């Protein structure tokens, strides 16, 4: 950690900062008090990142509060050692959100804070200041007076010390006042202009150095930072630097340059001058002819300078600007409701249930426009997988440079730069996957979650948050509107929307978690029909002697499209398919030596890898058990389908998209582009091909094995199957050409397949909800999954049994085990049982499930339980992991 400001005598300080230290353990999961040294006084606020002494070390922490007193005796009170950023990385509302998360998901406060900070910031950083564009303009129009002396110390030093009250620094809402104050007072002070001029001459300059020259200027610097007159740049050592660009600049005025250019004989040089003039006197070196620049530089007409640039991953792409479309009646009805809610500026959540191709995106776009018009910002969440150029294009096309894109495939530096644009307020729309919900905007008006049913909105590592819950909570803080959009809403959200309007009493034990209002768009834009679906019973195919992967109807349809030059999407449901190595002679399956799970085969490197612990080995050529050579890869299936396609339809152009072919950065995008340009006939893939794509020439969608996920031990299996089929069917016939879908299955009578083929969400959801109610699974209860791990099995078994007893006792003490409404208890504890993966990294795993209904505060119950289990961790080393509202029951 690099020091920004040094400390003096801590005993001078009376102000206290409450700091959450970055040590993710239960024992340290509380605020620690530190004295604020006087120099740091104006800089420390809620959300500041600081370095503090902790035991023998200095560690990082986040200030969550400032107070005037502490119980810590003054001898023991330690001062903050370092301030890591001049503008805090987290605004106060995100700090509050992190506190809420730590309660909801039973994780440490610091884990929740850290997930909000871009990883680029966690490297070693060095801070410096430069002028903002406003300040540059000011200095151009009102140059600093001549009596400027290099040290900048003038007679009006006393100026810096006044106006403390007026400033009201640290309040985000005070910004307007602050900018007003700057305009009214500060800018007329020659001293302030000197400060800016000094920065201009020495930029980038560290705050430390600036303060040496202007010892009293701390508050003015801070005010300037808030107002954008000064901009803080971060140079991150080791990890990522700020990107520099070589620029060529004119050294003379426009008239002089014109005259000079007119007199030039060399054509290249003349062109270069004209280009520079057209670009307002400055252009990147790489855009110009290097030898012409060299010649001009030798004549002293231009010079080359380093410019700091924000990396823009989409810079190379041109986005065609789009205009709002006239809305269809359905869209207009939905939009007017959203508009009304937006104008009210009160928190509210909607579910937009619109069939595939109903034009949800256009509704999003126009709602965002409305939101921006009232000077508020918008966040759009999409599943990582649909963060394709096509999706980005729609938002960039409408809002241009106002859009920041947060994409996990961006480099760390690119991601960090996008994040900075959000924090600095130079963009007003953020689009990204799950973690974009933490975009550090200050006045959020609208949060859109597209494909809200996607499981990728749930983070599977600590903090195990769900972006949907977090969005709803953030919206409450900001008075924002949340739109959950989907053609196949999750049962949780749909049930909540169905219950909207029933009072809490009537809902009783079946009360949904959120209050959601339902909006519907049941038809496709322009009256386009949903494609007809043919369900093929594969058992029948076998009976008539067809042993190939393709049923007769699918084969015919494929042939037909190839003849017509139309395109096909083929989906292989990957869940349930294997990626392991098996010996066909003895049945040996390569397993991780540390975990009870088969190793995954990676084709590119010919390695076997454990998905859980990272263990890797070379793929064996012969079976380690029986030495047979018939040991082979049981592929994802897509590879086999590809082989068969090539054999059956010689010359067919197939793009295979799965985990093996999309590991490289940008490969996913490239493939889709290639398909869009009709340089392939078939797009073959796993789940990846099912979502969000909109290709006009796709008229056939084939699903190879629709039911492979139905037999997973997961109460959401039917829901997932229905969603996948409906989504992929929705890719066909979205434009002028009519589409068709062929679904191959061994379970044609299963309700998820029957209703998906009828595009009947309502029928599916009512049947599914009936089943869920009968089995008492979400949304008719909430679950928490508690996983316990230890190296020794007998010890773990005993501990797990004790733990379950303890939890039952607590539920009993809380009066929650009493039967409510007949036989149904408010809290039920199941287990312990061995986890579906019973051993990971040499540790055995047991789990229990806590189920609760009605108004039970599940997080509080779980965290009370964990507290009483702490001695087990301390004395026996048993570890506990909690997942509140789990999406995966592992
Ligand atoms: N008002 C409109 N007038 C004309 N065309 C429209 C209108 N609204 C949307 N469209 C077009 O309809 C098509 C489908 O819209 P869109 O992709 O937004 O649907 P969607 O509801 O998001 O579907 P999915 O859930 O499948 O992603 C797009 O090509 C879009 O440009
Ligand atoms: Zn073998
Ligand atoms: Zn392993």
Q: CATH topology of the largest domain, what is it called?
A: Rossmann fold
Helix-strand makeup class: alpha/beta
List unreliable stretches of 5+ residues. Answer: 1-13, 146-158, 162-175, 235-242
- First-residue to last-residue Cα separation: 39 Å
CATH class group of the largest domain: Alpha Beta
Domain tally: 7
Percent range of helical residues: 25-40%
Write the layout of secondary structure elements.
Elements: E1 16-21, E2 32-35, E3 49-54, E4 57-67, E5 82-83, H1 92-104, H2 109-114, E6 124-131, H3 133-141, H4 158-161, H5 164-167, H6 175-184, H7 190-202, H8 207-213, H9 218-227, E7 230-237, E8 243-250, H10 254-262, H11 267-278, E9 282-284, H12 290-298, E10 302-309, H13 329-344, E11 348-354, H14 360-373, E12 377-381, H15 389-399, E13 403-406, H16 412-423, E14 429-432, E15 444-450, H17 467-478, E16 481-486, H18 491-499, H19 504-507, E17 517-521, E18 533-537, H20 538-543, H21 552-564, E19 567-571, E20 581-583, E21 600-602, E22 607-609, E23 616-618, E24 631-633, H22 638-648, E25 654-657, H23 667-676, E26 682-685, E27 698-703, H24 717-729, E28 740-745, H25 751-757, H26 761-775, E29 782-790, H27 793-813, E30 819-820, E31 824-825, E32 827-840, E33 843-852, H28 858-876, E34 879-884
The structure holds adenosine-5'-triphosphate and zinc ion (ZN) (2 copies).
Binding site for Zn(2+) 1: 583, 586, 623, 626
GO biological process, one term: double-strand break repair
Subunit structure: Component of the replication restart primosome.
């Amino acid at each position: 950690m690099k020091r920004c400001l040094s400390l003096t005598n801590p005993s001078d300080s009376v102000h206290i900062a409450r700091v959450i230290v970055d040590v993710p353990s239960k024992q340290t999961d509380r605020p620690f008090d530190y004295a604020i040294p006087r120099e740091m006084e104006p800089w420390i606020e809620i959300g500041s990142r600081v370095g503090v002494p902790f035991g023998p070390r200095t560690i990082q922490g986040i200030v969550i509060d400032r107070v005037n007193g502490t119980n810590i005796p003054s001898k023991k009170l330690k001062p903050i050692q370092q301030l890591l950023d001049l503008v805090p990385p987290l605004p106060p509302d995100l700090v509050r959100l992190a506190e809420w998360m730590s309660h909801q998901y039973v994780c440490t406060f610091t884990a929740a804070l850290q997930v909000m900070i871009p990883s680029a910031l966690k490297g070693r950083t060095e801070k410096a200041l430069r002028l903002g564009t406003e300040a540059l303009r000011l200095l151009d129009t009102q140059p600093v007076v001549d009596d400027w002396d290099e040290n900048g110390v003038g007679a009006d030093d006393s100026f810096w010390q006044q106006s403390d009250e007026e400033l009201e620094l640290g309040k985000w809402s005070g910004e307007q006042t602050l900018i007003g104050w700057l305009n009214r007072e500060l800018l007329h002070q020659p001293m302030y202009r000197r400060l800016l001029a000094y920065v201009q001459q020495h930029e980038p300059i560290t705050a430390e150095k600036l303060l040496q020259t202007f010892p009293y200027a701390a508050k003015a610097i801070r005010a300037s930072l808030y107002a954008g007159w000064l901009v803080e740049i971060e140079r991150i050592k080791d990890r990522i630097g700020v990107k520099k660009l070589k620029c060529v600049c004119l050294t003379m005025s426009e008239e002089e340059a014109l005259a000079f250019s007119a007199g030039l004989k060399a054509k290249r040089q003349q062109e270069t001058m004209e280009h520079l003039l057209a670009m307002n006197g400055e252009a990147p070196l790489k855009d110009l002819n290097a030898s012409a620049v060299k010649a001009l530089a030798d004549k002293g007409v231009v010079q080359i300078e380093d410019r700091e640039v924000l990396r823009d991953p989409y810079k190379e792409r041109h986005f065609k600007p789009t205009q709002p479309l006239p809305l269809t009646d359905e869209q207009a009805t939905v939009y007017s409701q959203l508009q009304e809610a937006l104008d009210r500026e009160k928190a509210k959540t909607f579910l937009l249930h619109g069939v595939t191709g109903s034009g949800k995106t256009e509704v999003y776009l126009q709602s965002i426009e409305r939101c921006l018009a009232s000077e508020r910002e918008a966040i759009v969440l999409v599943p990582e997988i649909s963060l394709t150029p096509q999706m980005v294009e729609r938002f960039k096309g409408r809002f241009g440079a106002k859009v920041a894109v947060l994409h996990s495939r961006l480099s760390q530096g690119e991601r960090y730069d996008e994040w900075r644009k959000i924090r600095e307020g130079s963009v007003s729309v953020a689009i990204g996957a799950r973690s974009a919900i933490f975009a550090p905007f200050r006045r959020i008006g609208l949060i859109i979650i597209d494909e809200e049913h996607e499981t990728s909105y749930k983070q599977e590592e600590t903090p195990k948050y769900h972006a949907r819950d977090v969005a709803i909570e953030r919206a409450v803080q900001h008075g924002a509107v949340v739109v959950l959009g989907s053609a196949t809403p999750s049962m949780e959200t749909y049930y909540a929307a169905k219950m909207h309007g029933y009072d809490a009493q009537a809902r009783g034990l079946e009360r949904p978690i959120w209050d959601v209002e339902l909006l519907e768009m049941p038809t496709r834009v322009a009256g386009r029909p949903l494609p007809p679906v043919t369900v093929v019973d594969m058992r029948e195919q076998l009976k008539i002697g067809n042993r190939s992967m393709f049923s007769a109807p699918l084969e015919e349809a494929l042939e037909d499209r190839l003849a017509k030059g139309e395109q096909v999407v083929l989906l292989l449901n990957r869940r349930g398919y294997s990626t392991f190595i098996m010996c066909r002679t003895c049945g040996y399956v390569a397993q991780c030596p540390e975990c009870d799970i088969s190793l995954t085969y990676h084709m590119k490197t010919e390695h076997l890898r454990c998905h859980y612990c990272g263990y890797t080995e070379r793929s064996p050529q012969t079976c380690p058990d029986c030495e047979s050579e018939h040991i082979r890869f049981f592929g994802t299936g897509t590879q086999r389908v590809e082989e068969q396609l090539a054999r059956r339809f010689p010359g067919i152009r197939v793009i295979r998209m799965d985990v093996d072919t999309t590991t490289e950065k940008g490969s996913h995008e490239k493939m889709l582009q290639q398909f869009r340009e009709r340089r392939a006939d078939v797009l073959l893939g796993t789940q990846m091909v099912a979502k969000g794509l909109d290709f006009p020439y796709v008229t056939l969608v084939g699903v190879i094995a629709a039911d492979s996920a139905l037999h997973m031990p997961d109460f959401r299996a039917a829901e997932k199957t229905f969603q996948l089929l409906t989504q992929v069917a929705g890719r066909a016939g979205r434009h002028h050409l009519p589409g068709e879908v062929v679904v191959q299955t061994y379970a044609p009578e299963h309700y998820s397949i029957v209703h998906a083929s009828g595009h009947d969400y309502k029928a599916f959801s009512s049947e599914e909800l009936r089943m869920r109610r009968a089995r008492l699974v979400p949304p008719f209860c909430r679950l928490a999954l508690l996983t316990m791990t230890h190296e020794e099995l007998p010890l773990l078994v005993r501990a797990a049994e004790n733990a379950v007893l303890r939890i039952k006792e607590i539920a009993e003490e809380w009066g929650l085990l009493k039967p409510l409404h007949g036989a149904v208890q408010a809290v039920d504890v199941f287990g312990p049982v061995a986890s579906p993966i019973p051993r990971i990294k040499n540790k055995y795993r047991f789990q229990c499930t806590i189920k609760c209904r009605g108004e039970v505060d599940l997080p509080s119950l779980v965290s009370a339980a964990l507290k009483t289990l702490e001695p087990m961790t301390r004395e026996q080393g048993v570890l506990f992991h909690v997942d509140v509202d789990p999406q995966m029951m592992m």
